[in-house]
Amino acid sequence: SQTASSEKYQSDPLPSWNEGKSKASIITYVNDVTNSESPNFIPVSERIATFDNDGNLWSEQPAYFQLFFAIDRVKEMAAAHPEWKTQQPFKAVLENDMAELAKQGEHGLIQLVMATHAGVTTDEFDADVKNWIATAKHPTKNVGFNELVYQPMLELLQYLRANDFKTYVVSGGGVDFMRAFVTEIYGIPEEQILGSRIKTAFDYNNGNPVIKRLPELDFIDDKEGKPLNIQKIIGKKPVFSSGNSDGDLQMMQWAASNKYKSFMLYVHHTDEVREWAYDRESHIGRLDKGLDQANNNGWTIIDMKTDWKVIYPFELK
Amino acid sequence: SQTASSEKYQSDPLPSWNEGKSKASIITYVNDVTNSESPNFIPVSERIATFDNDGNLWSEQPAYFQLFFAIDRVKEMAAAHPEWKTQQPFKAVLENDMAELAKQGEHGLIQLVMATHAGVTTDEFDADVKNWIATAKHPTKNVGFNELVYQPMLELLQYLRANDFKTYVVSGGGVDFMRAFVTEIYGIPEEQILGSRIKTAFDYNNGNPVIKRLPELDFIDDKEGKPLNIQKIIGKKPVFSSGNSDGDLQMMQWAASNKYKSFMLYVHHTDEVREWAYDRESHIGRLDKGLDQANNNGWTIIDMKTDWKVIYPFELK
Ligand SMILES: [Ca+2]
Ligand SMILES: [Ca+2]
Question: What is the pLDDT of residues B188-197, one digit of tens each?
Fold first, then answer.
């Protein structure tokens, strides 16, 4: 009956997920470890869930969203930096020469990041990011970057929190870039967002304390950096871990070694129509060793194309 | 009447505090900023309260408790290190020669810390600390170190949490030393404990992931390190900050610069009978510039001797 169907929908914690192995395995796990009669019961204080961000909570193609921020900032700041017209990697950015920018490699990327993420106070940087996200548009999807989050993952975060899991972002992206706007989208407070960071210094500006952002890397929250940062900041092993690339593999292994029953979840980008399809050969978000280990260890692998009814929240409107 | 008095006691959130300026200023502040009709109302997500540990939540005389742990560990480990019999600072520890140990200075201390805090996995170190705290006794008070916490501060932590403040420890002490046992005492989860730390490395032990503790400093969470670590890890400015030494001054200034109404609280050690009395000239927990700024800025200064009815929880029994 329509009533029963409507009730079923209301009681479905993951309405944007198609029925299938991925959805069933998540719900079975959560029901098991939150049941105080189960031998697998996990105390609330240990229900730590860690989520990678790029390609896992939001899209990451054709480039990490934070790179678009850096590019847009270089263009805005160019008037004050006439030397950039002839100096790489800035010249490539100002000329929209993405082939040349790619040639500049990791060193070029770090130069872009330092020029646009450092030399300001934490408050100024926060304002820079908020100003950017308010108007910036994704180059092919033509919507705000903050609209390109995965609706099924928003539901999963909410479902875990409703079951007293503490949800964290653990991303290779810049922690202060994310903190400037994802709290509202994900329902995750600033203090539960972990990421890469640059060094900072405490100083006074006319007697007022400020924290200045310095053009030097402090910590890269990727690969083995993920469990290391989780241990430093959270001090507990996750019981639920979710990612989409080989950069998440050590975090997955760390969660898999938990004495409590743990859940490892990989997002596999298989939908070239609604999102993008890529894995073992991709330069962004490569999923190769991680896919093998997930298969070998029986971890859950989301097939984006078949598991997700919708990709983005705006599809629901 | 007795009934009225009993009701008053039950409704008193800080029963171990004597009536007076310190207690009144705390309660007035909390009532103000949690009142949604007040112009000073602070949203729950911004109610971040940061507490120094040594000399602020527990005693720190005649030496930091973590030093007693290092000393006891050196003695336990000595059988496997015959060279320590002739090698400083270990020789001084093994001979109970505190004068010689003091002569070894900060370099000697760091050697003790590295020998006893590194070279093990995070799980092994956690067990080392738990084993120690289960039996170790303070040299003059002759009770467990975990009994030398301040009852009035336990009540303050609880009172703030009851008013939806998120309470954090932000200590110069080692974060993993504290995490091994203070969660239960303070009611503060591991992920809300910030401190100094050594470097770590991710590795595999027979295929099982482990995190190894390396004999190298990673971060000193003292002085300007406190606001820097708060910004890195919490990502928000505290509205309530509490400490007892000049090492907390930058954290106090950081909280004082909050756009929300903030509260700065210094513990002044004035009770040489029940605890210890020290401030401007002390080698441990020196409070000099901080005391001047607290007085000049109207921050609240706890006079331990007159403000606190009891110091330690065991006095209530
Ligand atoms: Ca990713
Ligand atoms: Ca202190």
Answer: 999 999 999 9
